[in-house]
Structures
1.
Amino acid sequence: MNNDSVINKRPNPTSRIIMWSILILFAVVQIFPLIWLVNFSLVSNNEMFTNGLLVWPEKLRFDNYVKAFIDGHFLLYLKNSVLINVLAVIIVLFISVCMAFACSRMYWKLSKVVKGLILLGMMIPIHATLLPNYMIYDRLQINDSIWALLIPYIAFSLPQGLFLTCSFMESIPREIEEAALIDGCGIYSVIFIIITPLLKTSLVTVSIMTFLNNWNEFMMASTYLNSPKWRTLPFSVLEFTGLYSSNYAVQFAVMSLTAAPMVIMYFMLNKHITKGVAMGAVKG
Amino acid sequence: MMKKVLVVILTLALTISLVACSSKGTKEPTSENGTTKEQTDVEKSEDVADPVTIKVFSNLPDRTSGQGFVEQTLFDAYMDENTNVTIEVETLDDEAYKTKFKAYAAGSKMPDLVSVWGQPGFIDEVIDAGILEPLHEEDYKEYGFINGSLDGFSKDGVIFGLPRNTDVLAFYYNQKMFQDHGWTVPQTYDELLTLADKINAEDIIPVAMDGGDKWPLYIFITDLMMKIDGSGILDKVKTAITNKDFSDPTFMQAADLLYESAQRDLFEIGFETTDYGTAQNLFTNAQSAMYYMGSWDMSMATNQDIPAEIRDNIRVFTMPVIQGGKATATDITAWNGGGYSITSSGAQKEEARKLLNYMFKPEGWTKLAWENGVCMSAQDFAQFETGNETEIQKQFMQIVKTSTNISGSPLGDLGTTEFKTVTEDSVQDLSIGKITSEEFLTGLENVYK
Amino acid sequence: MHKAYSNKLVILSLVLPGILTFVFAVLAPICLSVYYALTDFSGLGDYNFIGGTNFIELIHDTNFWLSLRNSLLLAAGFILIQHPLAIITAAILDRLGKHAEGFFRCVYFLPNVISVAIIAYLWKFIYNPSFGLLNNVIEIFGGKGEVNMLGTGTAIWAVLVVLIWHGFGWGMLIYYTGIKNIDPTLYEAASIDGADNKISFLRITLPLMKPVIQVNVTLAVITALKQMETVYLLTNGGPGNETQFMANYLYKQAFSSFKYGYGNSISVAFVSICILSTIILNRIFKEKAEA
């Protein structure tokens, strides 16, 4: 509000025009490729070879989407994506809360070392573990199972989760839990009944960051998975380049379709996601 | 401090034990495990026909047209005849397929039936690593495989795979476009280049080239060598690789010619980054007049995704003769490339063998592939002539029938994998003028140094 | 009280799941990587220990250095192009208020929620010389429309553009939050003193944003080093190895060139470089803060 009053006091038309044009220019640059994507997903394949920016199709080709939906195994992959990501988020939250409590509240000598070790994971590039993990999972015969995705997803989201949860936990006064302990509560009930609800904002942030990071991952998925059983949404896109190599319009349709769930979710949870990302970034 | 050290030691110990476990696993001959398991499986299946699942890893992702369709049709038919058998197929595009194949090979368990390429660059290392199961030569006496087509899949007289098709390299062209503009099929390479100038003048791409995948470029250069040298370039290249000596003028001339052609815009702008699908799409959407690819793409003529006025007008010609070259028009660049093998670590070896043998009965792959206008098999396909062939099919059949010399596998596929990688990268660099012909050839010589 | 907080068993039960995940999914593979890096394992069959040979080869491998250079180029692109644009946009956005603010924020961030797989293919199509969006745009502005961005020479810039484009919203959002956290009375005071927007941006916004900028720069460098997915799908390092990045290069060596051992030695170097650069950056910023 205050900012508004500042700008209102100084109505400088030229600078306003410049500001608006910058904003609009960037907005166009950011959004136009996506509009182009949706547009081309609705035309027939030979209408794409045009010189215009957008194509006004003779007939809207929704059958492209039917193909994308069926041949892209959309429902199966969506289900897998949701399941794997939700599980990963829940487990990351659980482990983060437990570890954060142990590291920032309890007294033990190695607390700093353990925390530091896990946080080190933030610097380690996930792709450096692709080759050895393939070997390890192969020996353990968990390649091509949900574990081959869950384990690395959890492990690489954990450092951030732990970091954020720790810094939030430190801002919670100890008195509340100490009173509970005196009343005879066990440590576990203190953590899960008393502390966890207080961490709500931080938990939302961790969930969003974990979800955003893992939802779009496909490198590990394509290395560790063989059968369609656990494939996630990005696979629809990857598979279609082979399957429909001679029909670009369908490829555009599958891209739009796979992007849709996350875009819809973003529009629905816009506020939370913005807040979550911002909070995570500022704290991190 | 002591505790810190202790932690480090503990974690190290944990990981080392993990490493130890896994490395022990590597050295164990995995086939032992495989054999015992597989024997019991066979016994069982003979007694009560227990359910069997055969895992197939294929490089044909498109299951509704082309070779993938034929493959899937055969699998479906096999499952109908053997109700206890389930066939699970995993598919990936060529390059992704090869990558994943190696990942599989590094692991302990392969799928049962896999796509392979009967060329040293792919199959030698795979055979040496003991991944493939030997096939029984006597099984295939009546199968009518073309003479020499099994050579690429054999080592020391043992067959390790069956070829799927006879690949002939050619220029596909849009006949209607040619007629409309009054262009004619070039008889010499110079004519091809002149034609390219004319086509460029009309703002059309002369030849759509999949240079992003790189291998079509080394096939192209092999095609040029073939036309320059005449009698089968195979031995010359093999000798050059062994002796690390590419000083033969044929190589230099071919390299120069490729570079000049690219400079004269024979290919589309950005051909070095154009992928397979895009190259094909340029042609099938009338953006280019010609398209350089193998006979496996003859199924374009029956692909419903391609507009009828284009798909009905696709014709082919092989690389025109080069002035001063020793080859005639009927010396062609062709080989038996893709095929199938059974893996030795697969859980269902014998079942996979049965399936493979079923697929390659002459009335199996050969007949289906030919009748569907998909490709020419490596077996005697002419017996299945129906009279309903597409024009491209007839042309290819004619090309094969009248061929006087056949090149064998292309340049990049004749050395090790490393040689292939180097060839791919450097032929691409050569075609865009990033390196000279000399640098290209010394690069090939230096692979093994 | 203290006793309850130092119960070893409870502590163990709380940390064990996390430690196990970490050891199993991060530490063990890295140790395994070190192990394989010392072998000539091709990915198939037997292998021998060859000591540091792989690392010596690595030092002489121009493609490895090229991929490191590309990472640094990308980091520079992030820091010198993406972040300044993001800060400026964020500062302007901060002054819009209400609906327009929310709208633009939403638009800017949208590409971020879309999968890298889609982004990479989308841009491959955009760059396509035959029917891509880019050439059509150039033609509209009177150009010749025959630009092949993914070709030799320009490919690395094409890759940078995509990555900068994709991450723009994220960076913008972070700076935006940072700016929102600045006490608005500071601006009021400045405007009473006669400072215009430009001056208050330079004198107030930028200095107060320093800690946020530092964190973001560190993140940008790490992100640039870790880059793989987009490049893998967009160019796979090509043409030649012009757009090679470390993660993609190790993948190519291990799985396409049958050099699993060598691929792992790249892995090891890769991890070391990432950790090292984080440490160095932290040092630099710490010293600056103290000075």
Note: Confidence is low (pLDDT under 50) at residues 1-9 of chain A.
2.
Amino acid sequence: MSIVLCRVDDRLIHGQVVVGWGRPMGINLIILVDDQVAASEWEQELYRMAVAPEIEVRFVTVAQATAELGEWQSNGKRGLVLTGDLETMAALHAASPEIIHRINLGGIHHRPGRRERLPFIYLTDQELHRLTALEESGAVISAQDLPTTPPVALRNLG
Amino acid sequence: MNQRVRALFRLFAIQGTWNYERMLGVGMGYAAEPLLEDLKAVDPVRHGEAVVRSAEFFNCHPNLAGLALGATVRAEYEGVPGPQIVRLRTALCSPLGSMGDQLFWAGLVPALVGLTVIGVVLGAGWWAIAGFLLVYNGIRIWTGYWSLRTGMASGMRVGAAIGSSWLPKAMEWITPTAGFVLGATVPLVVAWYLDGFGWAAAVGAAGVAVAGFALTRWFGPGLTSVRFALLAMVLLLLFRRIGL
């Protein structure tokens, strides 16, 4: 059918993604966009273990993803685009703003310099400014870990 | 005390400092500390870095955390570059979380609770409850020991070690088995509550048990044993209400 969810989560593929979002949304294609994982077979093997065999998992680089977004949007599958960081999602949005339109912040965890915005979202002020700029360029951004919890709009994360 | 035994004891307290910032991270660091001791004499700088890395953000099922702990400690001793060890930790969160949840929370625990309830209904009383505590904790402790040993033995190749271990096979069987047990439990408990236990209830229990096994095998993992048991309970009470 199309890409139904674009998520930023530094844990990449895990229970919240596969079970929490995957099942209720009927997702049968997970596209993990990460240059390092795309080049590492042992990491791919580990991530694949967490996913039921009926769900297809594609490991792609940012360049491959920007080239193939159009095809995933029309290939009849219900796809989830997953990135581990904000920069990758911003690059995908820049390449295809219509497809990467609504962005879900699902898990950005503690690192030195980051401040807690929600229990599952930690951002530096600079990262927050970059997200605000992304929203000004047309993206719709909200933080939500699971479909059963209410989404929090970007402007309420400050 | 042996370093591995100390690490194993500490692993059982891995959730003691659970928090949103690092989740199991601090617990992992505490468990890794005795295992990393020998690195201090070999390479003190590396030892310091390894201790810091071991306590960073981490999350998975607590009973399987030993696989990640053992694998990353071995990688530290083998001199694998730090960023690669961080990536290994991140990648392990995913399968160890989903496999552990499916195996323990959605499989083994409901299956053992079902068996315990059947034991109580059939008159075993407190012995059934003591048996549950003994068996569940026995499995949990053995899994912790096995996880740590396997992780230490495989290092960066831990993915292949998990793939060829008993874990994937156990996951395939645990949900239908839990469905079978809970299927048998539901009519027994309902009969026990309502009017004692007779042949009709025994036949009913066998029927629901077989249905539970088959349905959770065909429609799993969407249909978990817990969902099946709840559905069976509601249907039984409805039938009872309309006098069937």
Note: Chain B touches chain A through 26 residues (CB under 8 Å).
3.
Amino acid sequence: MDQVLKAFPNDVRFVFKNFPLPFHPNAMPAAKAAVAAGKQGKFWEMHDKIFQNAKELGPDKYAIWGKEIGLDVDRLKTDMESPETAAFIADEMKEAAKASVRGTPTFYINGKIPTGRSFDLYKSMIEEEIKAKKKS
Amino acid sequence: MRRSAKAATAFAAVLSVYLAACVDPQEVSQMKSKVDEIQAQQKDVLTKLDELAKSQKEILAKAGTGGAKPAAEAPDPNKRYDVSVGNSFTKGPADAVVTFVEWSDFQ
């Protein structure tokens, strides 16, 4: 994703939406940690921490990472358990059902689902979108 | 003619005695109990299969009514899905021509 943003710094906006799968026990707490970190303006910092350490997720990790990225850890813990955070994630999951998300990750480039997962494919789809926009 | 018929009857009688001797009655009862056992096991297997079919049905029914779940139909690569940014977290310029949305799971 960073590769895409680097290649198109002015033309691409990246949006992350949560879809914690029910059979992944760490997925929902991780999603809550990222959203709660977002309340302190550090969603992406927590997002990166979680992805970099995806194999060792656990309830005690979010406070450690929160401290590392400069969060108010007590607030992080409170926000992780708040109904507002749960509702935020539930909304994104509802949207996913409407958008035909069948698994994770699922990508959309201006609403179109790429048929594969390669930077070259994303790049050509993005270039097509930019070209179409410039014509209109 | 009569003599040969008599001979055949005698032969049959001898043969049946011989065959009866071959089949040990104890063996027969053992085989019978074995068959009974197999029948009982088969019944068990059929009952278990019924139970499995029932629980599978229940699981499928539950999956069908479970909360948020991915859509059943396959995504269409030619379709443009209505995906809005909403309140989700973003990176990159807000006025970008292309919106790249990812739905993901942190595990």
Note: The beta strands of chain B are 89-91, 98-104.
4.
Amino acid sequence: MGTPTTDELEKLEKQSLVEAPHEDFERPAESFVPGPYYAAAEEVLAELEEGVPAHVAGVKASSKGLDFSVDRRDFMRLFTVATAATAAACVRRPVEKAVPYVHQPIDQLPGVPTFYSSTCGSCAASCGIVVKTREGRPIKLEGNPEHPVNQGALCGLGQAQLQALYHPERLKAPMQRHGQRLDPIQWDDVYNILGEAVKKTQKIGIFTGGTTGHRHEFFREALERLGAPKTALYTWEPNSLWSSTARAHEIAFGKAVIPRVDIKHADLLVGIGSDCLEVGFSPVAAAKSLSAFRAYYNGKTGRFVQFETNLSMTGSNADKRWVIAPGSEMQVALLLVRALYENASSNKSGLARKIAESLLRKHQAELDRAYGTLNIPKAEFEALAAEMLQGGAALLVGGSSMFSQDATKLQLVGILGNLLIGSYEKFLFIDRGWMKPPVISGDLERFLADAPQLDIIFVIDSDPVFTVPPSWGLRAALEKIPTVVSIQAFPADTDRLAHFALPAHHALESWGDEEPVEGFWSIRQPVIRPTTDSRQAEDMLLWILATSGKNLPYADYHAYLYKKWEVVQQFTGNLSVVYDMFFKAVLRRGFIGKLMVQSLSAQLKNFAAELQELRVMPTGLQLLSPLDHRFHDGRGAHLPVLQETGDAVTTVTWDTWAAINPNTMTKLGLKRNQLVVLSTAAGKLTVPVYPLPGLHPDVIVCPRGNGRDDERSTISYNAGLNPLVLFPKAQDPLSKEPVTAGEAVQLTATAEWFRLAALQKHHDIANRKDIVKKIDLPSLKHAKKKNLDQVPDLFPKLEESEYRWGMAIDLDKCTGCGACVAACSIENNVPQVGREQVILGREMTWIRIDRYFYGDVNSPEVSFQPVNCQHCNHAPCEAVCPVFATTHDPEGLNAMTYNRCVGTRYCANACPYKVRRFNWWTHKWGDMGKRAQDRNPRAMNPDVTVRTRGVMEKCSLCVGRLRDAKHVAKETGRKIPDGGVQTACQQTCPSNAIVFGDLHDTESRVSRARQDPRAYLMLGGDPENGHYGLKTLPNVSYLSEVVRYGSHQPEHGQPHNQ
Amino acid sequence: MSDLVAWDKTISDVNEGILVGLKKPHPAFYVALSISIVCMLLGAVCWGILITYGMGMAGLNNPVYWGVLITDFVFWVGIGHAGTLISAILFLFRAKWRNSINRSAEAMTVFAVITAGLFPLIHVGRVWVAAYWMLPLPNTHNIWVNFRSPLMWDVFAISTYLTVSLLFWYMGLVPDLASMRDRVKGFKRIVFNFMSFGWTGSLRQWHHYETGYGFLAALATPLVLSVHSIVSWDFAMSMQPGWHTTIFPPYFVAGAILSGCAMVYSLVLPLRWMFHLEGFIRKEHLEALIKLTLLTSTIVAYAYGVEFFVAWYSGNEYEWAIFQKRAAGPYAFYFWVMVACNCVFPLLFWSRRLRTNPTVCFIVCLLVNVGMWFERYNIIISSLVEDFLPSAWGHYEPTWIEMGITLGSFGWFFTWLLIFCRFFPLVSMSELKLIMPKPLRRKAGGH
């Protein structure tokens, strides 16, 4: 035979590509070998379109999560063991072929990541992100360290966007409704049908989520081109803090702005029902700022006092927490304003004082009574006011969920309070770099009024059917609109009413921009080719316009932005460069901006008239439905990594709970996990109860976010309930937003039980002093530097090398938000296990956040403690492993060799910190979604081994990142500088609580943190008095919490209350 | 002791009586064997499921990484103790009553240790690699096992014990096998001849046999103490409160002997009936066994007390918390069952009337076995559920898979034991002859 022809060669090549990887022993090679992926464009396309691999799609799993079919591999295992249970089983791995690029893309090197800057699209805070891509696929999101909003950090929701991008439940193609069914349709047909439809009518509306960029402007332009009024754009954000604050500032100063809060240099922060660390405006920015504010430096530290009715994560971090009755936020704010007003050193400036005077006179009688009803003596307010006026202080009022119909009025009182302290332009900025509200207050109501006249509504990236209380009748309003087009990146409840459900790009696939702070622009760019047959929402509109013959002069949204950004170039004054260069430079950097200045604070108006009528708070049991800090209104509920991070305060995963004060529960005869029926004027809901200390006895907290009812999502399906059904239509008259709090509720116990999947089964610290340490300010002033490594030791000296990696975790800074958990899970391919497995205690997270309550049930102290592998120098786990699967690395790491592990689990028993995680199951590489423990192979970090069942795993201090950094250091012939390598948890921590680095370098941040007077080792005893505890000598040290009010006597066990 | 036994048979009845019994066991034997085989198969299915779907099928979880399977392991190792104690230590002490029950005790030991040896394999996450990675075989990976790990010590302790027990047991069998050979013809004769190594019963052979047997007994004696000490180090060498205590080795050995004696009693009683051995295993022998049970029960009770005292006296809050919870926490039930079965019920044996009543003894011995299983469960689970960090505290409930495997282990054990009893003499004929009256002695009642 001669040489094969080209055709034959091609055929051979194809065969080897298709046939090679199917002899799987451990795992299919197709997902693991870098070769076959981007060998040719055709392949990429095939892979992208396939979505669910056929061999997985066929596998149905019951809700119990078990599938009793025996596949070939299982049979192999059975067979091997059955024949020779004690003999060796030896199977050769199949030979896998790695296929090199035929035409290597110029910007892609296999194995070398490419980073893109972009803007996170998960909430209106608009954090800058850097997307790490490998072989064309994003594998990790990180905060852009230069971005001023988030300064390198990212919340859990932002981290989880990676799971969102590859989410298997995203629509694979556009759908059209036929009766009850949504059927696939071609894009051309969509454009033709809708193009025809918009030709016929001008009663067109767009309903969309909040954004600060050009998107709204584009929509208005499109509406105008279609002949609809510009006002037919309706914006809606379930986080009502945006609209209430914007509306309050509009009333007070004449312009709807959001103050940019930066309390770094303040001495005191007073919150009244604030949830700035959970949702607020920008939880990451708030945490960054609060972290600097609370840093203990030179005997000075910021103090945080919170008044709240529920136990929020924000309140858990307060140094002093007052529990107040639900709905009494307004009274507290007024009493504080009164105390400030009466204090001689408060702001003397005319108008604010005048407003305060008239306000206090009007409500004098009520306020005099309020001290009694609140059970807080007047002297306390006076002392607090004096404290506020002594140093720099800021007042934050209200949370992301309206406390009552008076939410905007509360904001006005907050403005008043801040004016009296003089904190505007010191800590709250409305004149220099103020924030833009992403929504227009009252749009929801306007939409409901306009809806009967509309013929076509485009619902874009917003899920009002789920996020608006049903009592508002939005569902009915949408049902009456002849054509509802739902354009969503993810399954949404709104799709159920939609005539067209069109898949939109995920934020990581789309173009966009945001202007979180006026004059500061952050750009969003696609970092991957679309993973499904989705389109950018704006492009869909452009196509519809084009088919209807009313073209806009842009080829696509990118072209639109490109044009719009010319203005940005002029505005920022970068005129010396060619525009294209400017645009590309912005894309590289991710943002550009200029500090804007106005003199809004001088334009204070007398708003006393708005505060004449105040609502009288009802008494008795009241319901509160705040946004969940992990997935806000539910936009992240379909992301297993967020579900499994667990609520910070309750540690509950996957479910919705009704938190009640334990004393109230005893009074009502309720037990944990008992199902109760909550009934209000609007509806009924059967929820399991969770006893949560620190709640006001009259409040029931039932968080929003879970309980979605879209047809497609199997992950969020059955996860929790939607408490919004309980809220009758009530709105804040000023901002016109729905109220989701303060609803009088009837509670009926049932005899049924529902076990909440809480990560933590025990909540009290059991009087143990060796776990979380606290130190009060007077003791801290006299505390000496520590030397945690000076311990008498009979063990042989450990082998050491160039580096000794260590970590220091500052418990005083940790807010418990769980961003580290999400970041770690995504970086290290940690699987999520699902509700049933969490109940069994089989969560896999490498870092967990322990939450402890101490003291009084009604007002407990709360501690958050992130616990990862402590990387002990005398590791109890290392000695007991019979096969050397866990060993000590010369660089101080406690290393795992997964393929040596046989799974005796002795190491995990021996570990006093219980940080080891065992793979009880194979967490399948199928499509994420069938079961929570199924993972999407595309979202895997190729640098980190994926563990199979029967293997122990745990925190590796991101050893992959260490190797990368060492490789770079070796190439450049230097040592890794301090900060040159960051672990995933440290990188994303919004409050800078985690420091990582080389302990050999005495000047590194981690070394200094280890010598800090607050430093201690968990279960490390009291080394100063010669007690060394377990003497495990971890390389992870902790910094004790600072008690800022009162004193702390550890020897009495019972920590100081409040 | 043999002087006190009221024999109604003489040594001339031994071969006949015992070997005839082998031919026609009581029909209950076949019922018992069938039940055992069914249980064994059930256990095999459960193990199969465990291997197919993963350790997740067990009730194990984050703080409780060891559960019923390790409980079973320690339980069976413990059972395997009495055999060597009875055959070796009592041999060295010349306690002659052992001669009637040592064979059954040794058989029990061998099968119990084999059963125990399965559990480390059943319980590991990747059994398909554990088998060869746990053994220090020369390999091309140039990797070695960790000799610092108590699990490694286990491998050696148990394999040594099994080897010595097997040798000891087989050695005792040799003269009996020769007796059996002499009674059969044809192929069977060749097999038995091979198995008895051509034993002829010459004086010279007996001389060597006695010496060898004595040496083996001396060799096996320290193993009685070492094996369970080493098993206890699995726990004692870790930092876990409730495990990390120096009393564990003697405490475990005492417990093991208690469970072993109780198990021998509960095995011998039905087997004696099935194989018509009442004339050879006399009530006096059984009573001696019961006395040993009582003795070890009091030692165990003392150990429980000391354990609590040490936990309190140490001043270690973690240790003391575990012990408080053992007695009054969520797992208190298991603790009190253990105390009742191991310390309280055996107190009945102080009464001679009850001690000699086989029904009472049988029930109490079964209860002791239950109690000893609960002791291991109690030690393992209650120490693991709530240790240092309250945030990591958990809960454990065994699943039907684990219980099925436990049942299967009993099935496996009894299947082998019953098969053994069917083909080999359950009483050591040669040794029995040493303690039984000679026929001559009946005649004149003098010298």
Note: Chain A touches chain B through 69 residues (CB under 8 Å).
